[in-house]
């Protein structure tokens, strides 16, 4: 492939990687990871609410990795409540999983920035050795994509398996009991999915530029090994 086309591909990959780093950083600070509704079962049972009456006992909840808010509805109008994961909810949430999600988000940002830098170096610089060349580009893209997948898996398990929304809804509630009526992942969660797909796309762009995967065998003589194989 001509050098100009390779430069263009590396520039595109670098810009995409940098955009993913910014998107992940923005996602971490929002409360748009999960949105849902919570049902005040205690109040609904007391008045035997059914049909349209049930809406008077359905509140809202949304949260991110650090904070969130809920609106409790128990038949007397909505009452908003702001909460923070650190340190308020540490005793009721799976703290190890939650902290792991935050750490993997940080790693994703770091390696997305590193990948963006090396894509630009390979686009405008001279041939580099090992980690500066195709092997490094595959490595940064693979690590970033893997972190994105781990973030989604861990956070999904925290929400669905450990019933995070219900634990938050019942935080400091002594009289009333709340259950999750509906919940869905919001924009910030899907941003991580998009970033993971972009890093996978970057690996395909490297291959499209004409570089074999690091574990691929050359079709030529197998006697040439070492740094020469990694130069381009």
UniProtKB/TrEMBL annotation:
Q: Where in the cell is it found?
A: Membrane
Q: Which UniProt keywords apply?
A: Membrane, Transmembrane, Transmembrane helix
Which GO terms fall under biological process for this protein?
equilibrioception; sensory perception of sound
For the keyword Transcription regulation, the answer is: no
Q: Where are the transmembrane segments?
A: 97-123, 135-155, 189-209
Main location, first listed in the record: membrane
Membrane topology, record value? Multi-pass membrane protein
Q: Which GO terms describe its cellular component?
A: membrane
Keyword presence, Transmembrane helix: yes
| Family statement drawn from the similarity comment of this UniProt entry | Belongs to the clarin family.
Q: Which PANTHER family match?
A: CLARIN, CLARIN-1
Spell out the protein name for this chain. Answer: CLRN1 protein
Q: Which organism is it from?
A: Chaetops frenatus
Q: Which gene encodes it?
A: Clrn1
């Amino acid at each position: 492939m001509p050098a100009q086309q390779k430069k263009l591909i590396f520039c595109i990959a670098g810009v995409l990687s940098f955009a993913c780093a910014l998107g992940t950083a923005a996602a971490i600070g929002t409360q748009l990871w999960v949105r849902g509704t919570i049902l005040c079962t205690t109040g609904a049972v007391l008045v035997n609410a059914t049909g349209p009456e049930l809406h008077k006992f359905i509140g809202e909840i949304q949260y991110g990795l650090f904070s969130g808010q809920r609106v409790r509805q128990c038949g007397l109008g909505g009452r908003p409540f702001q909460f923070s994961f650190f340190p308020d909810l540490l005793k009721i949430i799976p703290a190890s999983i939650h902290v792991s999600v935050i750490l993997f988000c940080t790693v994703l940002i770091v390696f997305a920035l590193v990948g963006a830098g090396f894509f630009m170096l390979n686009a405008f610089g001279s041939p580099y050795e090992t980690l500066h060349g195709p092997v490094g580009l595959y490595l940064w893209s693979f690590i970033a994509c893997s972190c994105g997948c781990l973030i989604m898996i861990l956070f999904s398990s925290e929400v669905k398996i450990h019933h995070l929304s219900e634990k938050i809804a019942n935080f400091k509630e002594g009289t009333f009991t709340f259950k999750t009526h509906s919940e869905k992942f919001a924009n910030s969660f899907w941003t991580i999915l998009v970033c993971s797909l972009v890093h996978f796309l970057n690996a395909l762009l490297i291959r499209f530029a004409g570089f074999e995967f690091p574990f691929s065998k050359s079709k030529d003589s197998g006697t040439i090994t070492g740094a020469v194989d990694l130069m381009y």
